[in-house]
Design goal:
The radius of gyration is 26 Å and the shape is globular. By secondary structure, the protein is mainly α. The relative contact order is 0.14. It is built from eleven helices and two strands. A two-stranded antiparallel sheet has the order 1-2.
Length: 355
């Protein structure tokens, strides 16, 4: 950290206030006063946290403990786990922006926070891709599905997805760093290494890998799966559950709407290295697109409840079962208490009679 403190702030390509987002050179002084755009982003973060924690917790509770273990429930369980872990870390982001981009939590939480964000992004899109592939194979190739679509194989796929998502989020653990400047501690991606060419190369490589692996390839895969699925369903007159189909499709569309602006601004941000003309537009677009991306973590459980009739039926049945069990416990405890009191009164009467 000593070499960082000797470098003037102008030598930092940018500083980040979210995952791997950057703000332009020597703009920290202008960001001391939190603008309206940042309040909008803070509002989106808070909304994602308030809705995401209970929503994903409910999905995890029912898919993990209340419902029968199936391949489909395992996919959605792990999707909810990825979102739930991420929203638990959102208060750190909220504090960072609310404190005028001051990071008081130390370098390890700076690294961990960014890693969790990247892990959530890649795990979510990978599980959505797996769900799309699983849906296609199950309906169009039932023989192959019956042979290979087992809980054991699904667990292997789940482990591979988490390992791949962790690998893709790994650079955040390596490059994320903190630096003191004007009584502010900034959490940023330390790409500079006193070599502008190396800094630019790392920025470009990580941005394009994130876009291709975490967005473009999954988007193409999901688009092909659903296009082929619709074509085959019409061609072969296959009867499918429209509610389940629209639930999965809505989850995918929500991911695209929430994450597309983020990836576009991430690529657009690469132009800062050569041209700062769009600096102000990026300063507005990056925080808003970031908040929109974070909002995706609370949308999935909402979509399950609003669209999936099967989820609604299971949810109501599970809640009714819990209430019934709770009332039964209360009733039993009340009966036992009455019996104990009756027994105590009876013994007291016998003692008085004996005396």
């Amino acid at each position: 950290m000593d070499d960082l403190e000797e470098v003037p702030f102008e030598e930092f390509e940018n500083y980040s206030y979210d995952m791997e987002y950057y703000l332009p050179e020597s703009e920290l002084e202008e960001k001391v006063h939190l603008g309206a755009v940042h309040w909008v982003s803070v509002g989106l973060y808070c909304l994602a946290f308030v809705l995401g924690v209970p929503g994903n917790a409910i999905v995890i509770w029912f898919t993990a403990f209340k419902w029968k273990k199936t391949v489909a429930t395992l996919w959605f369980l792990n999707l909810a786990i990825a979102d739930f872990i991420f929203v638990l870390f959102l208060p750190l982001y909220i504090s960072y922006v609310a404190l005028n981009f001051h990071w008081p939590f130390g370098i390890w939480l700076c690294k961990a926070n960014s890693f969790i964000a990247q892990l959530n992004m890649f795990a979510s899109v990978f599980f959505l891709t797996v769900i799309s592939l699983d849906r296609y194979v199950r309906l169009i190739h039932p023989v192959v599905s019956h042979r290979h679509r087992t809980l054991k194989n699904s667990l292997i796929v789940i482990i591979l997805v988490w390992l791949l998502a962790s690998l893709m989020g790994g650079p955040a653990l390596y490059f994320r760093d903190t630096v003191e400047f004007n009584n502010h501690t900034v959490c940023f991606n330390n790409f500079h290494e006193n070599d502008p060419d190396l800094r630019l190369m790392r920025h470009r490589v990580l941005t394009w890998v994130k876009f291709i692996v975490g967005y473009l390839f999954p988007l193409i895969t999901m688009s092909i799966c659903y296009s082929c699925l619709l074509f085959q369903v019409k061609k072969l007159s296959i009867v499918i559950s429209s509610k389940h189909f629209w639930t999965v499709l809505a989850v995918v569309i929500a991911f695209l709407i929430c994450w597309t602006p983020y990836h576009l601004f991430s690529i657009w941000e690469l132009t800062i290295h050569h041209n700062s003309y769009f600096t102000q537009m990026l300063q507005v677009g990056i925080p808003v697109s970031t908040g929109l991306a974070f909002l995706n973590s609370c949308l999935n459980p909402i979509l399950y409840v609003l669209i999936s009739k099967k989820f609604q039926v299971r949810f109501r049945a599970s809640v009714a079962e819990i209430l019934k069990y709770t009332l039964w416990e209360v009733s039993c405890s009340g009966t036992v208490s009455e019996q104990l009191r009756h027994s105590e009164n009876k013994n007291l009467c016998l003692m008085e009679t004996a005396q």
